[in-house]
Design goal:
mainly alpha, 11 helices, globular
Length: about 270
């Protein structure tokens, strides 16, 4: 069997998986889970800002809250399956994406959703973890190497770049390109557009701050500064008018969650 035949069969299998109604419906569930996690993270951020409690404003913090709720572990198993399906659906785009940027996006998002699925499964099985501890621990390990500082700086700059791109994506409404291409009517409701704009901008602010903290951790040789999303949001809250800023970012992250839930509708209608 020559390479062209193998490639055609691989692409055919990827197309079959990508378009299969079972996988698409499970991937929709994955988007809903992603949205609910962002809503919870946003609410935790607002609670931190107002001094009414909180927890860890991260995916782990949100998953921990779900795990503590009645029937939470069952819900987390469902979430893990949905996120795994969404990862697989995104990975299929690596093989069938019309352009290189579509394939790259599929690979990156596939990895993100796969790790989130694994984390959800860990909480469903009764385990626990902290995004902040993992980020600090990983940073500490890398900084111990002779090449550690430039690598951590590069990672921080990449995260900052993700944040800046998210800001751009929200401000220019570039996120509409993908969902409008999948919408049957080509029309997306104004409420979804508004949630997407505010959500992407808030997410961009959070990631830009997070990237800056990672770079700071490298330059100061202090891995504790690279404490994950929770640390980035708390840093926002410590600035002048920080309570107001953190509330705005928290509400924005919650709106991004609303956008993700609405986004589930636009998986190849």
């Amino acid at each position: 069997m020559d390479s062209k035949t193998t490639r055609r069969r691989t692409e055919s299998a990827a197309n079959w998986a990508h378009d299969h109604p079972v996988l698409k419906n499970l991937a929709r569930a994955g988007y809903v889970v992603t949205g609910l996690l962002h809503i919870l993270i946003g609410l935790i951020a607002v609670r931190i800002a107002t001094g009414s409690g909180g927890g860890e404003a991260s995916n782990s913090g949100a998953l921990a809250q779900i795990a503590c709720a009645p029937g939470g572990r069952i819900a987390l198993w469902v979430a893990a399956v949905g996120l795994a399906a969404l990862a697989l659906w995104r990975f299929a785009e690596v093989l069938i994406g019309p352009e290189m940027k579509d394939r790259a996006r599929g690979a990156i998002l596939g990895v993100v959703y796969l790790f989130l699925s694994i984390t959800a499964g860990r909480f469903a099985a009764g385990g626990s973890s902290s995004d902040g501890d993992k980020a600090s621990g990983t940073t500490a390990t890398v900084l111990q190497q002779s090449w550690g500082v430039p690598v951590v700086i590069a990672a921080g700059l990449v995260i900052t770049g993700v944040g800046v791109y998210s800001l751009y994506k929200g401000a220019t409404k570039k996120f509409l390109e993908e969902i409008e291409s999948r919408a049957a009517s080509g029309d997306v409701g104004s409420a979804i557009v508004c949630a997407g704009v505010v959500g992407y901008i808030a997410r961009g602010v959070a990631f830009a701050v997070l990237g800056g903290l990672v770079v700071w951790a490298a330059l100061s040789n202090d891995p504790e500064k690279a404490g994950g999303l929770d640390a980035a949001l708390r840093y926002v809250g410590q600035q002048p008018a920080g309570m107001i800023l953190l509330i705005i970012v928290g509400v924005g992250l919650a709106l991004y969650g609303v956008y993700c839930i609405a986004r589930a509708k636009y998986i190849d209608e």
